[in-house]
Amino acid sequence: MPSISLRIDLEADGRIGPGKVELLEQIAAFGSISAAARQMGMSYKRAWLLVEEMNRLFRKPVVDTKKGGERGGGAVLTPVGLAIVARYRAVERAAAAAAAPHIDALRREIEAS
Question: Where do the structural domains in the chain lie, given as residue ranges?
């Protein structure tokens, strides 16, 4: 089934796409960068680098972390992080709705082949 995947270029070296948004959603769900990384089959180091990249890109923290201690650390999305997820998903829904007739036409072409 044809589908679209959306990447938003924000700056010359900055972009946000399905992987980063999913990482943010997993951090929100699990309260942990390491748990989010495990859920996605990603190394902690890779997840941490992506979080750092987003924090630099948006100039305000996207994820707020607490260092480990007796009960361990944690991570939460900041208001900026929550807004990024909400806005990306809204753009994704709008793009999917606009593309739906064309995606259906492609699907029919594939099925007719």
Answer: 12-112
Q: How far apart are CA 51 and CA 62, in angstroms?
A: 7
CA distance 27 to 34: 8
- So what's the pLDDT on residue 71? 64
Q: Which listed CATH number (3.40.50.1980, 1.10.10.10, 3.30.420.10, 3.10.180.10) goes with 12-112?
A: 1.10.10.10
Contact between 77 and 85 under an 8 Å Cβ cutoff? The reply is yes
Q: Sorting pLDDT into bands at 50, 70 and 90, what band is 2?
A: confident
Read out DSSP for the chain?
-------EEEETTEEE-HHHHHHHHHHHHHS-HHHHHHHHT--HHHHHHHHHHHHHHHSS-SEEEE---TT--EEEE-HHHHHHHHHHHHHHHHHHHHHHHHHHHHHHHHHH-
What average pLDDT does range 63-88 have in this prediction?
88
